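QA checklist item 7 of 12: single-chain prediction sanity check.
[x] sequence parsed
[x] length recorded as 362
[x] structure emitted
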Amino acid sequence: MFTPEDLLQLKEMGLSEEDVLTQLKYFKEGFPPLSIVSAASVENGIMRIPQEGETAYIDAWNHYRQSDCTIVKFVPASGAASRMFKDLFAFLDATYDRPQTDFEKKFFSEIEKFAFFDELNNLCEKKYGKNIEKLKAEGAYKTIVRMLLLPEGMNYGNLPKGLLLFHKYPDGNRTPVEEHMVESSYYAKDNKERAILHFTVSPQHKPLFEMLIAEKKSLYEQRLNVRYAISFSIQKPSTNTIAVDMNNEPFRDEDGRLVFRPGGHGALIENLNAIDADIIFIKNIDNVVPDRLKENEAHYKKLLAGVLVKMQERAFRYMEKLESDDATTDDLSEMLHFTENELCIRHDGISLESERELRNYL
């Protein structure tokens, strides 16, 4: 099935022939179903915290942040923005030149509300000597869209979401990358006033992310009294999935090379595993809110982190007892309850009748 050139391509990507054959098998035969035990609900995988109990967890997180710990915000940021603009691409391909659909009419009637409007307007004036309002008056709607989406203008149709202007502010509009930088200062600073962020990006866009960070880093450091340590990684090619045709056979490009697609966010587990930190917040690149909502968001981030810290403390305490052989029968019962009801670890099929079996299991 694979030529010597194919095998060389696989080797360069860190994939074996067996890996790809397994992927093809899944395409043809389907994926094995998950074994679902039950739906998650309150007290069965979902923890409900009463409002009066929130302060204790938030205090636990704030106390933990003052220790000598490493906190990282991990942001998958390779997602392309092309799907965001599918309706505008459809408009460019349409046989008509003026807005027809409800989406098209609303987009052009309220275009000035977008964070990218000022930059787009300036580009139109620079290239055509006309602002967006004049172009609309002349019926040049597709010219406006081309300036937004294509390389001749802002190129938003080919950029990752992290580099697009998302939110409007009086002192300067922001991209999602900037929003993550600002947000991290609310809940992810350590005791050295340092915020560590790690973005996973595509290799072709990494220089653009680096340029944006270099341009904005000192601005937000001064404004927010924070020091940023920002790094990047690339989704490993070995996590890519082979593309197939309608017959589930390998798809090839014009040069005859095998075509692969990046794996989903689950493929970033290897990038995540390479991060050396005590606590890691994971948040997708476009999951950002404007400043007016950040305090509320930070409240729940701190709350979640406090829950994690308290659980970690209990787990470490239990491990110390087990390793020192100081755990009593009551301790073992408490540990089993913790693993089953708070960590949701089931022991179906494992005999725990004797204390020795229970101790070994834990």
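[x] summary fact logged: Residues 43-80+162-302 form a domain with the Spore Coat Polysaccharide Biosynthesis Protein SpsA; Chain A fold (CATH 3.90.550.10).
[ ] second reviewer sign-off
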